Amino acid sequence: xxxxxxxxxxxxxxxxxxxxxxxxxxxxxxxxxxxxxxxxxxxxxxxxxxxxxxxxxxxxxxxxxxxxxxxxxxxxxxxxxxxxxxxxxxxxxxxxxxxxxxxxxxxxxxxxxxxxxxxxxxxxxxxxxxxxxxxxxxxxxxxxxxxxxxxxxxxxxxxxxxxxxxxxxxxxxxxxxxxxxxxxxxxxxxxxxxxxxxxxxxxxxxxxxxxxxxxxxxxxxxxxxxxxxxxxxxxxxxxxxxxxxxxxxxxxxxxxxxxxxxxxxxxxxxxxxxxxxxxxxxxxxxxxxxxxxxxxxxxxxxxxxxxxxxxxxxxxxxxxx
Length: 321
Known about the structure:
By secondary structure, the protein is of the alpha/beta class. It folds into two domains: 9-163, HUPs (Rossmann fold, 3-Layer(aba) Sandwich); 177-314, Rossmann fold (3-Layer(aba) Sandwich). It contains eleven helices and ten strands. Helix 4 (113-123) runs parallel beside helix 5. The longest helix is centred in the first third of the chain and has 28 residues, at 70-97. The radius of gyration is 21 Å and the shape is globular. It starts with 8 loop residues before the first strand and ends in a 7-residue tail after the last strand.
């Protein structure tokens, strides 16, 4: 089974915050470990317009004519030169110091941050978005309209990495312990395939890849009434997922399979905390942001509550290797 690295082009939104710098570091370590498999990387800064309120609090921003004025143009240029470009230059220095050799684009666009991140990712065909858990606004991160949440739910063509509070600073392999929850759906199997593609050339440095099936206790009796043994079903799902790694040449001892019973999000959180994983790879559910939050989806719960490891929400359009 021939696998190709799924991280071909990385888009790295930055804003100069400490959380953003941590995302840059993670991208640098991951990119360095991938070597020549990485084809491109871009730092993106979105100018959202909020900077205007700090300096001109009484300006009527609805007046479109202001955007055409010389004063506004000069002010914006000064802001970019003083505040925006230095943060991009710093990001580039961090990446170069960590061993990134590919060309690094530095992009500046104006508009709604989440919308512009997804637009640039789509138009320039980035495979991967790596961004901070917080940074664009620590208060807004708690709200439905947070940049991170919007990007995760809108960027269906990209795998989105939300960088955790703890990263392993290792150029050889920053993600030696990986957790992959599986439920038998096509979404979760994409997560399995992605994980195999990502780590196939890193397996000499990997210490553990865990495939986790959580049997939902709330549905246990219902499954039995349907004539399905949840425990046998879990074994089958894990066997199919493990086969992906074995066919790709991973040593069997590297792959651990585990079954837990309970609420899926709670059990995944327990596993993540107990084993101290560096990366959790999850399949995308394809819901809208509002619906996912209302239903308490597993992916959303993990993003909000599992803060130390990095979480990757896998593209629903994963290419076959």
